[in-house]
Design brief:
Layout: H1 2-30, E1 35-51, E2 54-69, H2 89-117, E3 119-123, E4 128-131, E5 147-151, E6 154-155, H3 159-167, E7 173-180, E8 183-190, E9 192-193, E10 200-201, E11 204-206, E12 212-215, H4 220-223, E13 231-235, E14 238-239, H5 243-251, E15 258-264, E16 267-273, E17 276-278, E18 283-285, E19 288-290, E20 293-297, H6 301-327, H7 339-352, H8 354-372, H9 380-393, H10 399-449
Antiparallel strand pairs: 1-2, 3-20, 4-11, 5-6, 5-7, 7-8, 9-10, 12-19, 13-14, 13-15, 15-16, 17-18
């Protein structure tokens, strides 16, 4: 049913908007500003009640919400002490900042709960798979296939334990004890500080066997009959021993036919496939994901909170980087999605389980906070910019200039919404067309397979 598919989207959006507007509401009340309305949703009122000076409403369109503050616009100002514009620019900035701040707090809270109740994470043995060029690891006696036994005199059981030691020791010397074909070696390595992600960095990644865990629907691999559980033995007659070996061969062959030898059960199959060019990364991809062992990891209250903060900070940095790459044209604007894509993601994650749905909620909450802080008129960031200008020049921003910039902001947001919705529609239409033609091709293949050659 349509209502069941759209329900997770409504729940996610409602929680995000409620928390965001609650931030504005609480700080406004704290500063003595009269709140006239607190509405969850837009449009006609469904239900509501009044308590004190505030009307609390649930409205018909569950795609947003708002807090109506007294004296919020120039036309409504009377000069009363309890009006929004009667407060100092700094106090008004606090009210505006409270919305995005609450979304960040929500993300930290949700991520912390996920880590506290237990999260399923990929598990890797403490075996080196690849060493990055010009990295600290490339300058010492480390090789792919080395097994890490100890780091800083601590026994290492899996990759995550070793990674934690490196991350928490930037610009430091880490002592390692490794096993190389039965021979033990002691190695000292100087870590660097990772400017992009923070923490220590030495430039090694774990060994991942070339076993396929997932094949993306309608991908080149799927159409070529590569399946989950297949183990890749060679590509173009070159032996493959790890996932990184395989990935390099595929990444370097966009648009070129490659021959892959796979092991499926007790038999070996030779399969030809043409990697698609990923224009964003400029590499060839065939739509496969490695097979992972997983482990459920739980943290205590303090550890879960630290992990929740780390996750939120990482997503914040990643979002800002993505925005900057979009501006520079490094990421295609066709990757942008709107309400339809969010609804599809919410439906998909809800089917995977509540943990996945809440992870998506926290992810969108971080994005909502960051996007709201962009210095665009109408958004929270635009209001903050105007109040900062007011505090510097000592008088409010010119009303006419404010009116025109606000119109520009509205036009920009409407244009962006139309564009991302168009992207969503084209994405859905493209998937539908692919399914139709793939269905026809499958039918034709099935028919021809029964014909006598």
């Amino acid at each position: 049913m349509f209502i069941l598919r759209i329900l997770p989207f409504i729940v996610v959006i409602s929680i995000l908007v409620f928390v965001h507007e609650l931030g504005h509401f609480l700080v406004a009340k704290w500063l003595g500003i009269k709140v006239e309305k607190f509405s969850l949703g837009f449009g006609p009122k469904l239900i509501g009640f009044k308590k004190g000076d505030t009307k609390y409403l649930i409205s018909a369109v569950p795609l947003g919400g708002y807090v109506k503050l007294a004296g919020e616009s120039a036309e409504e100002k009377t000069g009363a002490d309890w009006e929004f514009h009667s407060k100092s620019p700094f106090q008004r900035i606090l009210v505006i900042l409270a919305g995005p701040f609450m979304n960040i707090l929500l993300a930290i809270f949700v991520f912390s709960c996920i880590f506290f109740t237990g999260i399923e994470l990929p598990y890797f043995d403490a075996k080196i798979g690849e060493i990055a060029k010009n990295s600290p690891a490339s300058e010492v006696d480390l090789k792919a296939g080395d097994i890490i036994l100890e780091a800083n005199d601590k026994q290492i059981k899996d990759w995550s334990e070793f990674k934690h030691i490196v991350l928490t020791h930037p610009n430091s010397t880490v002592s390692m004890l490794i096993d190389r074909n039965g021979e033990r070696k002691s190695i000292q390595i100087k870590t660097e500080f990772n400017k992009e992600k923070g923490g220590g960095y030495i430039g090694i990644s774990p060994f991942i066997p070339p076993a396929i865990g997932t094949v993306e629907p309608e991908s080149p691999a799927y159409k070529a009959d590569i399946r989950k559980g297949d183990v890749i033995l060679s590509i173009n007659d070159k032996q493959i021993s790890s996932w990184s070996d395989m990935a390099k061969s595929i990444h370097n062959s966009p648009g070129k036919k490659i021959s892959i030898m796979v092991k499926r059960g007790d038999e070996q199959l030779k399969i030809d496939v043409v990697p698609e060019l990923n224009k964003t990364l400029n590499i060839g991809l065939i739509g496969i994901v490695p097979e992972f062992k997983t482990i459920t990891r739980k943290y205590g209250p303090i550890g879960a909170f630290i992990q929740g903060c780390n996750q939120t900070v990482s997503l914040t940095v990643l979002t800002y980087k993505s925005i900057w790459m979009l501006i520079r044209g490094k990421i295609s604007t066709k990757t942008l999605g709107g309400p339809i894509m969010i609804a599809q993601l919410a439906d998909k994650q809800a089917k995977e389980g509540l943990v996945n749905l809440f992870f998506l909620l926290a992810l969108i909450s971080v994005n909502l906070a960051i996007l709201n802080l962009l210095p665009i008129p109408v958004l929270d960031g635009g209001h903050i910019l105007f109040f900062l200008i007011e505090s510097i020049k000592g008088s409010p921003v010119n009303e006419k200039w404010l009116e025109w910039t606000t119109r520009f902001g509205v036009a920009l947001l409407i244009t962006l919404m139309i564009y991302v919705t168009f992207n969503d529609i084209m994405r859905v239409a493209k998937d539908k067309i692919k399914n139709i033609f793939h269905g026809k091709n499958t039918s034709q293949n099935n028919q021809s397979s029964h014909q006598t050659p």
